[in-house]
Amino acid sequence: MRQRWLGPAMFMPAILYIFALVGVPFVMAFVYSVSDVKIGSEGYHFVGLHNFTSVIDSPSFRQAVKNSFIFTISSQILVLIGANILALALRDAFPGRRFMRFLVLLPWVAPVSIGSIGWKWILDSVYSVVNWVLVRFHFVKEFDAPVWLGIPKLAIISVILVHTWHMLPFATVILLAGLTAIPRDIPEAAAVDGAGFFRTLFQITIPMMLPIINVAVLFGAIFTFTDMTVIYILTRGGPFDSTQVIPSLAFFTGILGSDLSEGAAISIFMVPLLVIVSYFMLRTAHRAEVT
Asked: Does residue 229 register a pLDDT over 80?
């Protein structure tokens, strides 16, 4: 009898922790989304789907949804390409490989807020190091340097690149683990048969790593779609909502704007999107493992 209850008893602290950390706020978000709760309000009034219709009719929300997909898809493409290059470069032994792996991991290990503050200084409109280099090498004129965080197109490009810089080590570690799991005799046999680097990469290495790549993309997409730290520190969703995404809009509406009900309704829209993405990515990964 003791052995029968030992397993559930050992899992119970983790289950209670997850329920308290994730389950309770998740349920509260659904409860708030169908009410008129504000910060400081004393009562609860059920309003049905009013908050959801109001959010859908909002131009800021539609822009945030568009930006969320642009932000997630663009950054994940860049992360996937960069992680594959870094994983291939760090796979074989060379002098200083451990130190290089340490440097690659730094952006992921360091707090994202600290890194984002550093990038905000780098991209500052007055003291930008990037603009100083561009002016120094005469790529732009001294008083015509780009305002990276003040122009809509440059702002969305900037936040995508900064987020890519932060997520790149995470994907690199996952793909590097997948590369080391591939038996060395398979690419060696391909090399004996005359296969070059790119043919081996696209016909052997990448197909064998497809389940690992799907896992990296799945976690990266979830982290990116639900992240607002980079955008909050760099642009606060501006200029003109050009970098506003769903999490940041929910925060600005619910917390800074004191409208908890509408902020909760905005955050609820992320749930079905993430469930759909997770389902198809896991299904693709399962098919790849079977084949």
From this structure: yes
The pLDDT of residue 266? 93
Given a contact cutoff of 8 angstroms between Cβ atoms, the answer to whether 226 and 200 are in contact is no
Distance CA 130, CA 124 (A): 9
Cα distance between the two ends of the chain? 42
Q: Which two tokens stand for residue 238?
A: 């501006």
Q: Does this model's pTM top 0.85?
A: yes
Tell the burial category of 154 from Cβ atoms under 10 Å away from its Cβ (0-12, 13-18, 19+).
middle
Task: Please say whether the beta carbons of 211 and 289 come within 8 A.
Answer: yes
Q: Per residue in 159-182, pLDDT tens? A: 999 999 999 999 998 898 888 877
DSSP designation for 239: S
Dist CA 177 CA 52 (whole Å)? 43
Average pLDDT over residues 226-254: 91
pLDDT band at 248 (very low <50, low <70, confident <90, very high): very high
Q: How confident is the model at residue 111 (pLDDT cuts 50, 70, 90)?
A: confident
How confident is the model at residue 286, as a pLDDT? 65
Q: Give me the helix-helix angle, 152-181 and 59-91, nearest 10°.
A: 40
pLDDT reported for residue 164: 94
**Domains delineated in the chain:** 60-245+269-290 (1.10.3720.10)
**Collapsing DSSP states into helix, strand and coil, what is residue 34?**
coil
For tokens 């038996």, name the residue: 183
SS3 131: helix
Q: Are 72 and 208 in contact (CB under 8 A)?
A: no
Closest CA to 246 of 234, 115, 262, 30: 262
User: Is residue 288 exposed (0-12), middle (13-18) or buried (19+ Cβ within 10 Å)?
Assistant: middle
Peptide bond into 247 cis (omega under 30): no
